[in-house]
Design a protein that fits this description.
Length: about 110
């Protein structure tokens, strides 16, 4: 299992998305989202190579992977390194992904 490094934007994304689901569907939904998102990070740490490269390729960001948060239309965006995983964002698929991800490199 690799160590996961959560970047500040990814932490902010997690908090904001958890609040979004709490506001939209009640506290239980926000808690379920948070727990599922954190469980997904465990999967990323165990098997980072299984994340999809497709959005990274479409956005022109080499080696960027995404792992969907099961049951929710969003995913963790990350780079798999030799000894750790750099998790850079948690984004909803309805967002303008190239614009949101492009901010990482501005």
């Amino acid at each position: 299992m690799r160590r996961v490094r959560l970047h500040p934007l990814a932490e902010t994304d997690l908090i904001e998305r958890s609040h979004f689901y709490s506001n939209e569907g009640g506290g239980h939904l926000g808690e379920r989202f948070f727990d599922t998102a954190m469980s997904t990070l465990d999967i990323v740490a165990e098997r980072p190579e299984e994340g999809s490269l497709r959005i990274g390729e479409l956005s022109g960001i080499a080696d960027l992977r995404v792992r969907q948060v099961k049951g929710f239309p969003c995913g963790w965006f990350y780079f798999s390194r030799t000894d750790h995983v750099d998790v850079v964002r948690l984004l909803a698929y309805a967002q303008n992904l190239p614009a949101e991800l492009g901010e990482l490199f501005d």
